[in-house]
Amino acid sequence: MTVIQKKPDNPIAHLSAEDIEIIGKELDAIRDRVLAERGESDARYIRKVIKTQRTLEMSSRAVLLFSLFPPAWVVGTLGLSIAKILENMEIGHNILHGQYDFMRDPKIHSTTWEWDHVSPADQWKHSHNELHHTYTNVLGKDNDLGYGIMRVDEDQKWHPMHLGQPLWNLVNACFFEYGIAAYDLELGRNLRKGRHKAPEFRARARAVGRKIRRQVLKDYVIHPLLSGPSFLTTLAATFTANLVRNLWSHSVIMCGHFPQGVETFEKTSIEGETRGDWYLRQMLGSANISGSRLMHIMTGNLSFQIEHHLFPDLPSCRYQEIAPQVRALFDRYGLRYTTGPLPKQVASAWWKVIRLSLPNRGTAQPVDDLSTRALAPSGA
Amino acid sequence: MTTTVPRPPARTSVRDRLLRLAETVTTPLLPGDYLDLVAPLRAGAALRGRVVAVDPETPDAATLTIQPGRDWRGHTPGQYVRLGVDVDGVRQWRAYSLTSAPGRPDGRISVTVKAIADGKVSNHLVRRLRPGTIVQLDQAQGDFVLPDPAPARVLFLTAGSGITPVMGMLRAGAHTRSDVVVVHSAPTGADVVFGAELRALAARGAIRLVERHTDSDGLLGVEELAGLVGDHLERETWACGPVGMLDAVEAHWEAAGAGDRLHTERFRPTVISPGEGGTVTFTRAGLTVQADGATPILEAGEAAGALMPSGCRMGICYGCVLPLRQGAVRDLRNGELTTAVPGDGVLIQTCVSAAAGTCDIDL
């Protein structure tokens, strides 16, 4: 992939400014239809997921008190992994987006929620909700494009450091929550620019430190200690559950913006962007994952990444319902709705990470290994 | 010379230590978040209640019997309780007079709700609420109560659901301590909430009851009071009813120089009539600004020099959310109105909300 504006077959060249405004209006209409219905069933849904998650987490931790006994280890670790995934994906991510703020329940609200993650909720909300969701896939603006450690677009400049990026990506996947905390702190940039002594940065770093301490104390000290003779096996179990959760969320999130078919945008292209332009960028800058209902819940409905990026504040349980309408809109306007099963999308994203660890082959023509599309010249 | 008071040695009880240990296990949640799943009414939890019965009183009024949480501190007859209930998935708070006598052996309390036309919450409570529902509560409040010692002669002047605080006082035995006259207005005899109970009290001479059925006899004018209750201005009077009635009653008592013997309870919340634009007050910052109906409150606040939190400025990141304490705002994207009455604190996205009337923002 390369920024959409430089593509020889620019996939939006056939759209007029009026078309884009109409697309925006149609999407607004979809949003309004959901808002008109939003209410009791959405509230019931999120409360049910929260209750299920809490019950699962507590019972799994209780089972792990006897983790010396292998079946208990397996059941407890599996349960805790699922609980942690649900907590981050379907509950934390979505509540922190304000999807359930409409309930006016102070206990389930974006301004009060804290999650089972080493990045404090308020820092994550800033880098994710504000920067990533506003500047989705804009090179130089959206740091989610490679998280500042990888090159995931031909138009990002190659550096010898990128040779190691398949390894960085693997390490990042295993310790994803720490990667996110560092990313939310803009650790690399702040260190490089010598801003690590600025009071604002230090305050935020201390907050992350406190959060890490609490998380580590819970998972790696208190819970193993409570297990008595099962200390070591419980330690291994909570470590495994965190690892599983990290690998899973990393995979799901890679599928959202890195697979083949997702477009990126030049910094100058968003100057004077209309609401329709913004919608169009979200449509082309995201990719879905196809699968079962259980898969969708476990991804926090980020398997409907396109719908989520169009309407980040609609309740996650509504994405599945509106997906056919959104897809029909793509078809009507000749746009590509990027989707595929999880293994295929993960492989596609990984392939990009591996491929772009090397400099671009040739200079003018971006390399597009997986693409089978014919390259048609276009003036746009 | 300065004296220093030695600091008391920090003592942590076993209970505190256990609690802290429990917190390290449940972080980032609190132990209470888990306990709420099984014991929502326990001591130490946010105050809640379980609805145990919903009994119709009239075609459009019902009494809710509620088992309050362990931390309920009780009430004085005549007080009200703020009740938070989820209607269509959205938490709504309203105040209702307590109609039960305090100190029931089972600890239960009751409120009586009259469904008003287009009343989102009152209609839900009267027609859709089911026993078993958990509702949010606040401690009882209000000073519409009888003093101690009780006055010798009392007049209760009520209309419609205005009878509810008075019923709370009567059930607590107000008529055993004072000579009580109740003058109550309702459209018809069948619409009198607690009609049977009031008439039974009157029949055995415990109170004197004057019922006014306004459908047939018209609204009660203050000038008629002298004929109905000759000594009304000498009685300590508690009045509760619609705004118009209370205004007339206050004027009448003031004119007669008996204003200090009149106590009123105004139930009608601040009426919010949404329009275009309005005065926005940032209450803690002490700033007031005029905003038109097309300007986001975020921009209006920034222009006035308020330190507004902000983010994407397009309604997606929720970085600018602030509590609307009272007033009305309009969503600039789809025109949807959000209103808040005092005590609500509805959180709004200031970057896509414009004033639709006078607004108090908590900043």
TrEMBL record, chain A:
Domain called Fatty acid desaturase: residue spans: 72-339
Molecular functions (GO terms): oxidoreductase activity, acting on paired donors, with oxidation of a pair of donors resulting in the reduction of molecular oxygen to two molecules of water
Domain of life of the source: Bacteria
Protein's organism: Micromonospora halophytica
Record bears the keyword Translocase: no
Any GO BP: lipid biosynthetic process
GO CC entries: membrane
Pfam families: FA_desaturase
Protein name as catalogued: Linoleoyl-CoA desaturase
Ranges that cross the membrane: 62-83
The entry's keywords: Membrane, Transmembrane, Transmembrane helix
Record bears the keyword Membrane: yes
UniProtKB/TrEMBL annotation, chain B:
InterPro entries to which the protein is assigned, alphabetical: 2Fe-2S_ferredoxin-like_sf, 2Fe-2S_ferredoxin-type, Beta-grasp_dom_sf, Cbr1-like_FAD-bd_dom, FAD-bd_FR_type, FNR_nucleotide-bd, MRET, OxRdtase_FAD/NAD-bd
UniProtKB keywords: 2Fe-2S, FAD, Flavoprotein, Iron, Iron-sulfur, Metal-binding, Oxidoreductase
Source species: Micromonospora halophytica
Pfam families: FAD_binding_6, Fer2, NAD_binding_1
Annotated protein name in UniProt: Ferredoxin-NADP reductase
PANTHER family, A to Z: NADH OXIDOREDUCTASE HCR
Cofactor(s) for this UniProt protein: FAD
MF terms in GO: 2 iron, 2 sulfur cluster binding; metal ion binding; oxidoreductase activity
Domain spans labelled FAD-binding FR-type: 44-147
